[in-house]
Design goal:
The chain has 119 residues and is an all-beta fold. The strands form two sheets. Strands 2, 4, 5, 6, 9, 10 and 11 form a seven-stranded mixed beta sheet that branches. It has a four-stranded antiparallel beta sheet with strand order 1-3-8-7, with no helix packed on it. 0% of the residues lie in helices and 53% in strands. The protein has strands at 3-7, 10-13, 18-25, 33-39, 46-51, 58-60, 68-73, 78-83, 92-99, 106-109, 113-118.
Length: 119
Amino acid sequence: EVRLVQSGGGLVQVGGSLRLSCAASGLSVDDYAIGWFRQAPGKEREGVSCISSNDGRQYYADSVKGRFTISRDNAKNTVYLQMNNLKPEDTATYYCANGNTCQSSTEYWGQGTQVTVSS
């Protein structure tokens, strides 16, 4: 059984930092692209960041470039999203998901974790 279990998130003030984790079981994170998505109330889900499987190339939405960093720990089979200099517009439910590539459709999803940035 494949599971992506998320942790991290919470309430933080503007300018603060949080780290999200996506721990996988039933698949190896280095065999798949792992992406982070978010959805704010009343808005469509958007892709935030992705790390590819083969070369570890990282992709970021323009809105988070320079503030968010995606990384992968193969030994822990976990992908992280370090979020710095958080803004109120980063408030959303964040999800991780796997896919064959960062451009392909997703397969399995994490349960979601809330990030709230207060001003």
